[in-house]
Amino acid sequence: MEQPHELTVEAPRAWDRPVVTAPVLACLSLVGGQFPSFSAQANLWTLSTGGALIWLGLGNRVPRRPPPRRLSPGAIWWVLPVAVFGVLEGATFVMSVGDEFPTFSRLADPLLEDELVRSAAWFAWLAAFWGLVRR
User: Fold this and answer.
1) Residue 38 DSSP code
2) What distance in Å separates the CA atoms of residue 96 and residue 91, rounded to the nearest whole number?
3) pLDDT, tens digit, for every residue of 9-68?
4) Which residues contact 83 (CB under 8 A, 6 or more apart)?
5) N or C: which end of the chain has fewer CB within 10 A?
6) What mean pLDDT is reported for the chain?
């Protein structure tokens, strides 16, 4: 007979509190939004902030809920569109088809020219990434 998993609760660390994380992510996104799209500085900033979030999010971690034993049958409806998008994006990038069949990044470039929109996109990316790391 299987024993139920015990959930352990620990006091949230400073960077786990929304009062702290939202302003920190906002500052990081404002800095990241100042770099030109797909530049070396932007790539370095992406790697360094992503690495720092992984380190903070996974370091000395106590599981909050037990991991699922297997994916639910409804998960295929989430995996399927993501996989199709990934294959199409990768194929168009590798084949360098250009304007005939542009990648999603190329379509987003005109939107990301504005620094405020780029900062908002950075904030959305950082918040989603932090949520995934802490899950």
Assistant:
1) T
2) 8
3) 555 555 556 677 888 889 989 998 898 877 889 889 989 988 888 887 777 665 566 666
4) none
5) N
6) 78
Q: Are the C-beta atoms of 15 and 21 separated by less than 8 Å?
A: yes
Whole-angstrom distance, CA of residue 36 vs CA of residue 34:
7
Residue 65's CB is within 10 A of a number of other CB atoms, namely: 8
Take residue 84 and report the two structure tokens written for it.
């199709």
CA distances from 72 to 64, 65, 81 (A): 20, 16, 16
Q: What band does 7 get if pLDDT is binned at 50, 70 and 90?
A: low
pTM for this structure?
0.62
SS3 sequence of 107-127: HHCCHHHCHHHHHHHHHHHHH
Which residue matches tokens 């379509």? 107
